[in-house]
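Hello again,

I reread your note about wanting to compare the complex against the isolated chains. To keep things tidy I'm splitting this into two emails, and this first one only covers the full assembly. Below are the input lines as submitted, including protein chains and any nucleic acid or small-molecule components. They are followed by the predicted structure of everything together. The single-chain runs will come separately.
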Amino acid sequence: MTTVGQLVFSGLLIGSIYALMSIGLTLIFGVLRIVNFAHGEFLMIAMYGAWAITRSLGLNPYIALVAVVPAMFLFGAVVHQLMIRPGLDKPHLVVVFATMGLSILMQNVALMIFSADLFDVPPMLSGRSITLGPFYAKPELLIGFAVAIACTLALRFMLNTTYLGKAIRATVQDGEAAQLMGIPVPRIFLLTFAGGSALVGLAACMMMPLFSVFPTVGLNFVLIAFVIVVIGGMGSIEGALLGGICIGVVQSLCSYYIAPAYGQMFFFILFLLVMVFRPAGLLGRKGEANIGIND
Amino acid sequence: MEAAPAQTERRPTRWRLMPERGTVSLFELALLAICIALVAGRLPQNLQDVVIQTFLWGGLALAWNIAGGYAGLISFGHAAFFGLGAYCSTILAVNHGVTPWIGLWLGALLSAAFAALLTLVCARLRGPFFILSTLAAAEVVRIGALNWATLTGGAEGLAILPTPSVLNMVFESKTTYALLMLCYLVAVYVITKVVEGSRYGFYLFAERDDEDAASAAGVNPLLARTGAMCLSAFLTAIGGSLFAQYFLFLDPTHVISPELSFQFALLPALGGLGTAIGPVLGSFAITPLSEMLRSYLGGAAAGLHLAIYGGVLVVVMLYFPGGIAGALQQISRRRTKGAP
Amino acid sequence: MTTLLEVRNLTRTFGSLRAVDDVSFSVREGELLGLIGPNGAGKSTLYNVIAGALAPTSGAIAFKGRPVAAWKPYQAARAGIARTFQIPKPYRHLSVIENVALSALLHNATVAAARHSAEAVLADVGLADYAEEPVSILTVGLLKRLEVARALALRPSLVLFDEIMAGLTPSEVKGMTSLVASLPARGITVIWVEHVLYAIMKTAPRIMVLHRGQLIADGAPEKLAKNPAVIKAYLGEEMSLA
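Full-complex prediction:
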């Protein structure tokens, strides 16, 4: 039984980090009603950034976030202004293909700059685990978990109490009405996209100690992120956290009891099942998937 | 009202210059002539490879366009249909001695059935939800193929014996392959044009533009969409079988990959979604370019050609959403209306 | 005259909102029936349920004698019900005539024949000059006419007009009114939702009033104007008869 417990515990921890990576995606969908197909590549360059800073300055990735997070914020802002904004009033396939093109571009620029080799940062505590009661976990996982939870709570607090937060929630509910109420919706779009990118940067710093980075690493993670966002409900932060934990646990259990590769297949099947029976996800708004976006 | 309507109402019975719905234009005939010349001409081997791939990808792009451009069902999972076709005909040929000439039809039917299932299951999904579902479905097929090694050879792949014979659809001469691929391209093109000019095609366009209005006009949206997806899958699978016969080696990572799925969507997007000539132009523009970039830059700047791809796609989608075909149409329209 | 449409105790709820609340009425062949009511009264929802875009929560609908509750829009269209949309929904990538030809395909075997049919309908609504133009150049008034053309091209037995006058100039309203008035003689029964009251009160011999999902009046326009419940529903609005 303790094996299952350990697996669930590990799944919980890694799942929360997956969730951190997905919060940006779900917010961007909730506010802008677009899917950023380059989301995985944002994660990838942030990871390269964390790796580069760690290697050249000898810091550890957790400190590197001080540079990576603002840099990703800026990057997101630039991408939004140049690419997303012009596409918002066009049919949604324009943004789909444009972000897809960006994804291909970024993957291959990374390939040209960094080559296809895998890069890592050295683990903390020389790779040993910490014991917490009956369970054990690597310290990187625990830190990542803590940051993910803190981030979710902070975001929820921000959304509930600050003006920006309320403006974001209003825009999520009804962009047109929000605009009519005097909310500067284009600026909300910009801030959300940039903020979502910054969150990806934060997630990358948490993930760098746990995963290797290579040019196509984004592809693995973006599919996980999509599944999480769909399960949790597009636009819901708590949904992303719950979805992430679900996925983490499912992956953990499946990898142990069934071959790891099949484990991946399971959560695509899970994705499809959710799409069929409850496309709004656990905490999303019903009927959203049937209306689509920008139609 | 200006004088313009009088000009556009005139519908002479002479040949049209530029491609149009429902008719054959001089442009298309000229392109066909060029293609035949490319097959018949004695090109060096590596150029013949480029021609073969250009034709094959032209057909595949057209097939994707039926679902993605005409029906508005953007799919990032078409590699699943491609792979199903390729693997089905190959497994039947290698393990059971069934000639690929028959095997490819079976693969196509299997793909179409899978497409019907997928469309029905995802019937109520729109926009990115649908796109992501196609992606997930293709990944399921890929992982399944990867792990069902007894059937598919798994990661080690499946090879076809390169003994040339017509029955085995393996040819010595690249010219024959080029002819085969050209036939595929022409066939898919003709099917596309026929659909485009038919009642069904019309229903598809309306359903894509506004499902509610089309429903209120008597269109059964689910049937329309399922039909488009099935036809698209059917034709894509045939392309997959042809690919298998040419490349003589299959493995899931390369044949059912998301990258391949993106390629299916990318060529029509660049060439012009929702037109018949668009995907062809997309393939003719991109495939040779990509092959040449790959052979000249190759390992040294691996990825440069794809990076350029990506960059071009971004620019085209934002500023020329009609693609190459759209740009051509705009030029020809400006010429018919005369100078302002 | 036979009953074309029969609606009995029809209710449609959205959560706790009763958008259509226990509505019953019947429409005979050849009638021109107006449907008015303040905003939010449930008129569009009623249309959506009759035309199959929404399923009723309870109640029954019978069209041409057959019970048809919870059918799909394309089935309604094929059975002979046409509708317009309050916010016009044209096919953006098709030209004006193609928009109409799509509907005409229901009764024509080929695209060419449908186009031919569409030409006649376009002439009917006064859009013949715009036949080959893209719909993007049409103003709201013209888009509404396009909606009417698309509905008529279906050769329906019953047509549901949803505020086709909104945004039209007074002369356009006149033209559209005479078109609508001519339909029953052509064998097309009309239900007509309208906010431009002077047009509908003058033309329709029978008007129903919907308020908060309920049918509060059903009769001749002159009687409605004196009906206290109707006046109360429109509190603050002026109702004038020609």
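For quick reference: Chain B has 16 helices and two strands.

B.
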